[in-house]
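Case study: VOC family protein.
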Amino acid sequence: MQTNGLHHVTVVTHDIQRFYNFYNKVLGLKLLKETENIENTAMKNLYFGDNKGNAGTLLSVIEVANPLFVKYTTDEIYAYSLRVPTDYSLYVFKLRFDEMNIKYDTVIKLNGKHALPFYDCDGRCVYLISDEHNKGIPLGEPDDDSNVDAIHQILGLGPVLINASNRLLTSSILTQVLDLKHTSSYQLAAFDNDVQVFTSGDGGSGGEIHVVQGAASEKKRAANIEQVGVSVTEEVLFDYKKRLESVNIPHSEISDRKFYKTIFFKDPCGIVFELSTKPDFNL
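Here is what the predicted structure looks like once written out:
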């Protein structure tokens, strides 16, 4: 069994129209589908991705009733990143952010790759990460209708960062349950401890989950980033279900999310992971 890289990230927002305007008009992401939230049909669920809606390029956003206040605690998905083709693409977006008064920070490195931290319409920190020196899972397909030039478009998910109060437990889930490999570590100024890198599938930025050891916190988990999904084949999805049962990890049944099938579960720190099949948005 193996996972095949990142599949999607799910976030929440109180203002779905503002989110659409930012991610489509500012970042240039393609809106693949607008549907209702399966858990609450009064609320919307938008899917963004590359031109074909390939796994590894998907951002799912769920509308919630209450205003969102982004705050950072432990035992949460701290941030996600979005892949752009080159280092120069970061500069292009930096100029774009200047024109549109979007807040951003100095370019840093995530596991050796240049990355531009910025703050989206809900105030969450997101990283644009350059694919210039990346190997492994390829970028997705550009969208001819995007307002960002094809050579600079966001074409996939990059590393997802997890802040865990017990890194050992989360790491063991990644390696022993989801079959990711521990491949490297690096330093990030936002944290006192080093960041451990775990890789899925063919690896590279499109297959990485980064885990940092955070201090235990009494603060309530913000949950502005709901979950991270990794890609599996439909056959392997059933095998992973059996594995979760064999190690007594509570999990959902195999769920049909309209566009793909999925199982989700929580690790001991409360991080929600999904195992998801090849998407089809031509429905």
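For the exam, be able to explain this: The mean pLDDT is 94.
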